[in-house]
Amino acid sequence: MIRRAATRTVEEHRGAVLRLLEGRLAAAPQGTDTVDLVSAAGRILAADVRAPGSLPPFDNSQMDGYAVRTADLASATGQTVPLAISEPIPAGIAAPALAPGTAAPIMTGAMLPAGADAVVPIERAVPDTFFADRDRPGATVSLPSGTLPGDYIRAAGSDIRAGSVALPAGTRLGALQLGLLAALGIPAVQVRALFRVLLLSTGDEVVEPGHALAPGQIHDANSTLLAVSLHEAGAEVVRTRILADSPDRFLAQLREDLARHPVDLVLTSGGISMGAYEVVRLALTGEGVQFLPVAMQPGGPQAIGSVDGIPFLGFPGNPVSSVVSFEVFLRPALGAVTGLPAPRPELAAVLTAEAQSPAAKHQVRRGRYTAPTEPGTAGRVELVGGPSSHLVHALASSNALVHIPAGVQTLPAGAEVTVWLLN
């Protein structure tokens, strides 16, 4: 006879899942991958990256204008000084030295010539356009006096100096960070290996999408829901379909999969409740896995432990229960131990209609959140569908999870609740 375990709170089970994953990474730390910059998008940097050179690598012009020696413009303030026009300096060439008494037309980003210590923007020159015949003998430009050294110059290393830390280990790599590495000339980067999950779907009644249903069968939504959720959370998913025809076959197939696929976590959906044919419970009771209720709706039945030293989590079989379990327990733990994913945005919103919840359970409802239209006010959230765990259409229509804590039975319209934004 199966005895029912004591009920855990949501916070207690969330802590247990976090400790399970922390224990795995303590025993088997994440490896690393070296990948090109585009492939590194969304990954976590495994080691400090130091700048191999400075940015900018040379002094360059901040503006289109004239490179000058400020000593040549040191006459009384308010006057202009005529200077001979020397060879122009476009971007991408090694600039020739600037002779005293001359001004060199220089383009934005072009290397500052030796001898120059400032740039005068073209708008301040007379004439305020570059000569079409700059090479004609005796061409001059009048520039304002009082120009200071360093004006409109981007100094070498003013962004980052060679040898300094460009990005520290643990940085989540997005377009901005990878753009910096590209600017430094770095073509590839070392990132943490992805957290690997063996995802199993159970149930004789479950049929792959695309196959016809026999009487009493349903299509498997959980594998897609959880595989995509894991992928979006930065995990690598190894998916194997296990038919729940017998506990012995389930356990044997699971061990074959573990021998074939090195993973950090086994995740199942279905087969963990108190029914007579719960294959995961029947197969893994006594194998280091605990089956217990959590005071949450949906997602009350949960399984946690290890199989042959590999962490194991079992989620309920109803699709909404499975997704809520992932969002409440696994996704935050993955973010805490691997750096991926980022926490869901959490904010306050007011209900558009009354909500009912079991007093003893933390209820997680699906909702459509609308941002506030006035500063200093809370957004609004409309509950989508009821609390039942089979309402996949309502789930697909949602953009937020609405949390109603244990101990609350009724919330009136206008009551404030906590929501997690899903997209």
Tell me what portion of residues adopts beta-strand conformation: 25-35%
User: How many strands appear in the DSSP assignment?
Assistant: 27
Shape: elongated
Oligomer: single chain
Give, in spatial order, the strands making up the sheet with the most strands.
Answer: 15-12-16-20-19-17
> What is the helix fraction of residues, given as a range?
10-25%
- Number of helical runs? 7
Question: Structural class, please?
Answer: alpha/beta
Low-confidence stretches: none
Calculate Rg over CA atoms: 32 Å
Mean pLDDT: 93
Query: How many strands, which pairing sense, and closed or not: the largest β-sheet?
Result: 6 strands, mixed
Distance between the termini: 44 Å
Pfam families: MoCF_biosynth (PF00994), MoeA_C (PF03454), MoeA_N (PF03453)
Organism: Arthrobacter citreus
EC number: 2.10.1.1
Family: Belongs to the MoeA family.
